[in-house]
């Protein structure tokens, strides 16, 4: 029987280092946002293997290390999709820092930026300076999907796709209105993204 899927569970750096170079077509990932998840409404205790409250510079260096390894494992024309949100209501521009090191330091080609419109704000009463321009707050009901390619934007070779005409037309608009996952408490995960998000990326960006 042909094995078409294989799951790995463990530290991503250790697992990535076991994979062959130039063997990956597409990466779809949502790394921790460094917003101190742990003691929250979905978890009774903090993460036991990861600190989600690093200093920002340490966090960016950690991400850069991982995406440096991924670059070596990607095929020419391979794509990387990073779902990320900014911290502190946009005051901590994580997505911009990622773009800078991905392009200027590692060598990825910037491909596109998709806005994932979740139409959801955790605490809409965080106004900052209420009814005053003194220091208003701007909660963000959206996240970013940053897309990069290795050496060329065009896929190498020709494969098969079941991408429909309607899907292509709808999904090629770089604002995706997708409701956030609602079963996080049921599964005990504090930051699940909806299945629709990786489905779109896989079908739009790989054979």
Low-confidence spans: pLDDT under 50, at least 5 residues? none
Task: Output the number of helix runs.
Answer: 6
Helix share bin: 25-40%
What is the topology, as strand order, of the major beta sheet? 1-2-4-3-5
Q: Rg to the nearest angstrom?
A: 18 Å
**Major sheet description:** 5 strands, mixed
Secondary-structure element order, N to C: HEHEHEEHEHH
Assembly status: single chain
| Spatial shape | globular
Output the structural class: alpha/beta
Say how many strands there are. 5
- Determine the N-to-C terminus distance: 22 Å
Query: Beta-strand level of the residues, as a percent range?
Result: 15-25%
Please, what is the average pLDDT?
89
Quickly list its features.
18% strand, alpha/beta, globular, 207 residues, 5-stranded mixed β-sheet, 28% helix, 6 helices
Describe, in short, the structure shown.
This protein has 207 residues and is an alpha/beta fold.
Verbal overview:
The chain is α/β, with parallel strands linked by helices and 207 residues long. The protein has a five-stranded mixed sheet, with helices on both faces. Helix 2 links the parallel strand 1 and strand 2. The protein is globular.
């Amino acid at each position: 029987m042909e094995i078409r899927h294989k799951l790995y569970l463990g530290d991503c750096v250790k697992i990535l280092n076991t994979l062959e170079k130039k063997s990956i077509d597409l990466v779809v990932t949502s790394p921790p946002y460094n917003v101190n998840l742990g003691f929250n409404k979905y978890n009774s205790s903090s993460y036991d293997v990861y600190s989600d409250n690093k200093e920002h510079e340490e966090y960016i260096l950690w991400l850069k290390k991982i995406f440096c390894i991924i670059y070596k494992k990607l095929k020419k024309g391979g794509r990387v999709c990073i779902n990320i949100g900014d911290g502190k209501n946009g005051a901590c521009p994580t997505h911009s820092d990622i773009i800078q090191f991905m392009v200027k330091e590692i060598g990825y080609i910037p491909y596109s930026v998709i806005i994932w419109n979740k139409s959801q704000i955790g605490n809409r009463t965080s106004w900052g300076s209420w009814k005053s321009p003194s220091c208003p707050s701007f909660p963000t009901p959206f996240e970013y999907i940053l897309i990069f390619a290795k050496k060329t934007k065009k896929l190498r070779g020709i494969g098969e796709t079941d991408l429909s005409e309607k899907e292509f037309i709808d999904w090629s608009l770089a604002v995706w209105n997708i409701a956030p996952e609602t079963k996080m408490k049921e599964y005990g995960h504090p930051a699940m993204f909806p299945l629709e998000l990786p489905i779109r990326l896989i079908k739009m960006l790989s054979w």
